[in-house]
Every structure is written in C-alpha cells, then in structure tokens.
Amino acid sequence: MTIWGNVLQSNIRLLHQVTRTCTQYPGNVLAKVSYDSVQQEIMQACEKIKQLLTFGPDEDDSTVSFVRVVDKVMDALTEAQRSELNEDFESEIVTLVQHSMAVAHYTHGVYKDVIVASCHRVRTCCPNTC
Q1: DSSP 3-state assignment of 1?
Q2: Exposure string for 82-103, b = 16+ CB within 10 A, e = fewer
Q3: Which of 30, 34, 40, 41 is nearest to 17 (CA)?
Q4: DSSP per-residue codes, 52-98
C-alpha cells in the first residue's frame, strides 16, 4: 500500500500545480489534458488503496510476483548450478538483497514480511554472498 500512497501523494502535488495552471490559463488545452490525466491517476491510486484495505494484496501484484521470481530462482539453483554461473553472481545477489531490504524498509504489513522473509531465505541459500 505504501507504493500506492506515494503515487497518490506525488499526484496530489502535481494536481495542485496543474490546477493552478488551468486557472491562470483557462484556454490552455495541454493544461486541461494534464489535469484530466493526473485526476485519473489519483482516482486509480485511491481505488487500489481501497482494494488493498478491503481485500488485501492481489496474487498477481508486482511486489509479490517479484518475490516469487526470486524464490523460484533460488529453488532452481543448486550448489552445483551456482558454481557454473558468472563470477559476478554473488555481487548481483548482494545487490538484489540490499535493494529488496531497502524496499522492505519503506513497506508495511504483508509486503514487508514477504520481502524480508525472501531476503532471509536468499541469505540462507547463499551464506557466502550476504
């Protein structure tokens, strides 16, 4: 939900600027198009937040999907397969875990728990990398 909250917050600032431009230049067609676009994004963000609060996260949500992809990769990589990968593999895993933990830091609830659990799982699977 934090992601959609950030989208909403940034679009509200943008809406303020576009509204000011529309009132200063009522005949400006581009300002009106921008206003409509920002308004639509705000409505979509509000609807997504409402759905998240009502029903919880979607199964096909990109955050959960990302975590599933990481889990599948880690499941597929046995010790023998890992040794065949390029030499930057370990640094890429470290970067992935660091980025994921940074995302988890700004996320709350179910998403945070899923991301942190996956990062710990990666760390367990590849103890020499993290």
Answers
A1: coil
A2: beeeeeeeeeebeebbeebeeb
A3: 34
A4: HHHH---TT-HHHHHHHHHHHHHHH--HHHHHTS-TTHHHHHHHHHH
CA distance 14 to 79: 50
Could you tell me if 57 and 93 are in contact, meaning their C-beta atoms sit under 8 angstroms apart? Answer: no
What are 32-42's pLDDT values in tens digits? Answer: 888 888 788 77
Q: How far is CA 21 from CA 14, 24, 25, 72, 117, in A?
A: 11, 5, 6, 49, 46
Is residue 38 within 8 A of residue 7, CB to CB? The reply is no
Is residue 25 classed as helix, strand or coil in its secondary structure?
coil
Query: What letter would DSSP give residue 27?
Result: T
How far apart are the C-alpha atoms of 105 and 49, rounded to whole Å?
19
Hey, which bits of 1-48 come out as E strands? Answer: none
Chain segment 10-27, per-residue pLDDT in tens: 677 777 788 888 888 889
